[in-house]
Amino acid sequence: MRIGTYNIFQFKGYPEEEAGQALGPLDNPARVEHFRRVFEKLDCDILALQEGGAPTHMLHELASSLGRHLATIPSPGKWPGQVLSRYPILESRTFSHFTWDVPVPPLSRCAGAVRVQLCDAHRMWVFVLHLHPSDGEIRKVEADIVCQCVEQLLREEDEMVILGDFNCERDEPVHVRLASLGFLNAMEAVGGGLRPTVDTAGKKIKRAIDHIYVSPHLADRLIAARVVDTLGFRHDEPRQPGTWDHSDHLPVIVDLR
Questions:
Q1: Which of 40, 63, 126, 175 has its CB 3.0 to 4.6 Å from that of 70, i.e. a possible disulfide?
Q2: The whole model's pTM is what?
Q3: What is the domain extent for residue 141?
């Protein structure tokens, strides 16, 4: 089973101006076909997207063309998550909500969990999150909420994958808390260590902020993990005119037996 996470930059391509010339409007068939090929190349049984905002018919077309079920994790802002799954989706739960009395609510990007049916009596949670990009105090609150939700969900199913754009360094509370619950970071466990996932021409600061964690009951099923950095996903500096990438982030994928 292959599971992946990818901040898809709202299907815009990066840099947006260069990509737009090639892909046309957001719902242009050429753009839909481009991202279908991108996702097909990743070959994930379950693929979680962040910044997956797009017209509903485009998302449905993508899912149908890939033969995948689709669940959307709503966002209080403009950054919904998506889960494309080869396995049937039994339910989805949303933990990111608009709060009228605070300027920026916790989990203002997205957070939610999808329960998938792997086989007749085998179910698993896929927990998708996208934490605040710049405010560490907000991320502390988000870490509390996320870990409370995780503990509740584990009482229902003990197999869980937590993945997404964490927007923070490895020593921040969300990582520490997940480790205390026994979760393993896939790249650290079987991927040779963390590697930058914001790492393409035009990005001055290289950061490892996209992660996949697995619960203790999945630990012995880990085989390999990697950051996908082949041409089209990233370019070396200096970027040549007319070149662009699928997103400003790189995907992370993990293989489990």
A1: 63
A2: 0.98
A3: 2-256
